[in-house]
Amino acid sequence: MILEQCKRLSKDRVQRLEKGIDLLEDWILKLLEQGFEVLRKDAHRMEDMATRAVDYGMPAIARRLRLLPEKITEEKDWVSYLNTELGQMLFLIRSIKKPNTHLHPEDILSFLGVPIKKQEIVDHTEGIEDEWLYFGTVFDREEKIRIYRHWFYGIHHHKFALCIDFEVNRFVKIREYKRGWMYCGPVHFYPSALPLRVVQIPQTVQAIPTVINFNKQSIQAYQDSYAKAFAANPFLRQTPACLSGIHLIEIDDHCFLSDPDGTAMVCRTNEDLNRKMRAYCLDPETLLLGEFSEKQFNPLSVFSQGYIEKI
Predict the structure, then answer these.
(1) Could you count the other beta carbons within 10 Å of the beta carbon of residue 251?
(2) How many CB atoms lie under 10 A from the CB of residue 186?
(3) Is 304 helix (H, G, I), strand (E, B) or coil?
(4) Whole-prediction pTM
(5) Which residues of 187-203 are buried (b: 16+ CB within 10 A; e: fewer)?
(6) C-alpha to C-alpha distance for 306 and 250, rounded to whole angstroms
(7) Are the C-beta atoms of residues 161 and 201 closer than 8 Å to each other?
(8) What is the rounded distance in angstroms from the CA atom of residue 191 to the CA atom of residue 118?
(9) At residue 198, what are phi and psi to the nearest 5 degrees?
């Protein structure tokens, strides 16, 4: 199994993970035989499996399983949601057992929830020195934990960086970042087929220059690059983008971004956001920075005429 390539794990840890993966596979296959309807009648099935996942060292799998009862209750198309979640887990299992899998071992461990110490990353990776432009934060919640995804762009290396903070209680203050500023210094990326998440952001700050040479893309170019990224790491949940030459299209209650050749993507929408987007799209030089997640684009900032602003 590919887990045996993970040199930072002890032999006992690998064996425990392998047993947990076998157990999860059996649980999913039995569920597929019985039908998803049994989960609506007996939610304890998911809690029991989530507990076993923790016992075998797979806390991220446990979190995903514990979210399922809520999704079954709230989602209209909950069967489709379950198909996606369990299908991804089954794909993970088959990839782990496949002898010639192309996946990066650390991407698999990340999906399972096997932690890696930040200091270990710093000690074994080379920091990338740059001026990291902050362009927005996305808030999310899993169980009782509030998650902050802070996005940055290195203006010299043209690399995106994602810094994640977890707020377990409100007494721990989360670091705040400001648009219009760059955070200067080295960052260390978590190991991955597509390094994106970083350990921390430097403390030194300075104002952004009026001219920044972004590695901008059309929607078509972004979709092509996303397809390649997804092939390298199928467990990607969020990816950043810097889009240019975009237009806003509104159809009924749906909002789309389109580029000049007609390629489009779904965009997060509300009345205030649409009004701002229409105004910014009048300038063909406007760049839109944001996060692609859950099959839609979430705009965070625009860069126009030397200024970056929240949208």
Answers:
(1) 7
(2) 14
(3) strand
(4) 0.91
(5) bbbbbbbebbbbbebbe
(6) 28
(7) yes
(8) 11
(9) -120, 160
What H or E segment, with its residue span, contains residue 140? Answer: strand 128-142
Q: Find tokens 């978590």 and name the residue.
A: 190
Residue in the structure block whose two tokens are 């509030």: 146
Burial category of 210 from C-beta neighbours within 10 Å (exposed 0-12, middle 13-18, buried 19 and up)? exposed
Per-state percent for the chain, helix, strand, coil, to nearest 5: 40, 30, 35
State the 10-residue block means of pLDDT for the chain, 311 residues long. 83 94 95 84 84 95 89 81 91 87 90 94 94 95 86 97 88 88 97 95 94 92 94 92 90 85 87 82 88 92 90 85
Query: Which residue is associated with the tokens 């899993």?
Result: 142
Token output for 65: 């399983």
Q: Kindly give, in sequence order, each residue whose CB lies less than 8 Å from that of residue 218, ignoring residues fewer than 6 positions away.
A: 243, 244, 245, 259, 260, 261, 263
Instruction: Classify the phi-psi angles of 68: left when phi > 0, otherwise alpha if psi is within -120 to 50, otherwise beta.
Output: alpha
